[in-house]
Amino acid sequence: MSLKLTVLGCHSATPRVNAHPTSQYLEINNRHFLIDCGEGTQRQMRKYKVGFSKINHIFISHLHGDHFFGLIGLLSTFGILNREKDLHIFGPKGIKQVTELQLKLSMSHVKYNIVFHELTSHKSELIFEDDKVAVYTIPLNHRVYTNGYLFKEKPKSRNLHIDNIKQYDEIEICDYHNLKAGKDFMLSSGEIIANEELTIAPEKPKSFAFCSDTMFKPDIVPIIKDVDVLYHEATFLKELEHLCEKTKHSTAEQAATIAKNANVGKLIIGHYSSRYSDVECFKEEAQTVFENVDLARVGEVYTCTTNIPAHV
Amino acid sequence: MSLKLTVLGCHSATPRVNAHPTSQYLEINNRHFLIDCGEGTQRQMRKYKVGFSKINHIFISHLHGDHFFGLIGLLSTFGILNREKDLHIFGPKGIKQVTELQLKLSMSHVKYNIVFHELTSHKSELIFEDDKVAVYTIPLNHRVYTNGYLFKEKPKSRNLHIDNIKQYDEIEICDYHNLKAGKDFMLSSGEIIANEELTIAPEKPKSFAFCSDTMFKPDIVPIIKDVDVLYHEATFLKELEHLCEKTKHSTAEQAATIAKNANVGKLIIGHYSSRYSDVECFKEEAQTVFENVDLARVGEVYTCTTNIPAHV
């Protein structure tokens, strides 16, 4: 399994006894990312068994409290736990100043290095890349500067078809690297064995887009086109669409419209306004536009189980 | 009942699933105070039915996260709840800068006025006073600048002994004010009726001292002498006393020694280190020195039920 999302919090505005502000833990291609960090996130991480030491990258969408006020507590706890590894924090400009001021005032001499990546662009940009995953911003439209994040697995190597390879004595272990990279094999006779005979196509690279908070913003569709899983906020139902303009949030129908137009595999909605005690109605509204909808629920784990080969 | 303490959190260091950092809600003589505000305090306030609108004064002992990181979230929530009343915050210098920076970055345009009372003195001082209550600092010794707080009810008026008053036709309603203030009454004959015959002594004014975090600091004893209830941290047991010097905390025995020397009515201990899963041993250790000890437990309410007249 290469994509697994644990929802640590999915409610808007204020923490309540059974309502936790936004935070998600994403495991993608053996990378471990924390996305947003509302107050109480570290408690939720403990509750849902998220390993603190696995987190090396934290992505903050914007500096509203329900997405951000748990960060300083988590950083302090990392310090108390004697973390030594670098921690990378991506978020709006200002996040460095306020974090460093809090650490200074509390005289929290953390031993690890915090590397801030402050964002200011209003265009989608590549902000992280290694051999496994690339992360891009998704510029959103909220009351403060806000980005969503797009997480994309890098294409994987082809898998060796050992039974077929064994038919050719000339193919040695040192050739496997080229085979995994998709290259054909030329026998000493000059005959070319097609790569497709010697390897099996890998899984299609998975992708996940996180889009919260934002008002309806159709121009993100090209950025998130064909993602396997889209988390998109749906703070209100359509009956309160007039509040979206003022508060710069979306309705369930609008989230579903983005999902449909972007041809995503699955839509997860959350960030429900506290005025709704039953959130099933969000799913019902979204499904009038787009069928494959899940409701974000605290503590639930969403996996991407599509197993379609990237190519054959 | 004039003194009621609700423990919202009583653990040290990091929030965990069933361990909440320091916060207490004190009701004293119809005043409502929040003392310290670790991460998750607003959730605990909701859980234990602490009315948000009753809080007009918040006292922060020091700027370590387990006493302070929940403040900004609470202030933001006050804003979301459309608070308009002034809010007074008492705490170490720096609290204004960091709070205002966070509010600015999150563009939380709260409608109410936050009045900061930044503390820098190393001597006990009167920091709040009205007709019901006075609050004094208790300088403590921790790794950062720290104050405890002493809450003292103002002496109450004497209660009218209506049956006895009715024996004297000359005493009119307009005289009651003087009687409540303890004055004798002179009849037109020149005879003096002693106040004690016409009134009943009020309850002794209650007092509560909050002392966390601190290493053993005997010079606070004169400040907290004879308080009804003392909350004193006890992070470690005596067997780990050597850690107290390094971390500037106290043992249960040390807390009890302060309680004994200050002749307090009751000692409540808390701020347990996370290394102790069972905290009964803290009570046992403290009771080797001072008998009337309670363990702070999250969600518990401690009332001061002593009903001793102040004087007769």
Automatic annotation (TrEMBL), chains A, B:
InterPro entries associated with the record: RibonucZ/Hydroxyglut_hydro (IPR036866), RNase_Z/BN (IPR013471)
Gene Ontology MF terms: 3'-tRNA processing endoribonuclease activity; zinc ion binding
Gene3D superfamilies noted in UniProt: Ribonuclease Z/Hydroxyacylglutathione hydrolase-like
Documented EC number(s): 3.1.26.11
Catalytic activity: Endonucleolytic cleavage of RNA, removing extra 3' nucleotides from tRNA precursor, generating 3' termini of tRNAs. A 3'-hydroxy group is left at the tRNA terminus and a 5'-phosphoryl group is left at the trailer molecule
Cofactor(s), by name: Zn(2+)
NCBIfam families: PRK00055.1-3, RNase_Z
Name of the protein this chain belongs to: Ribonuclease Z
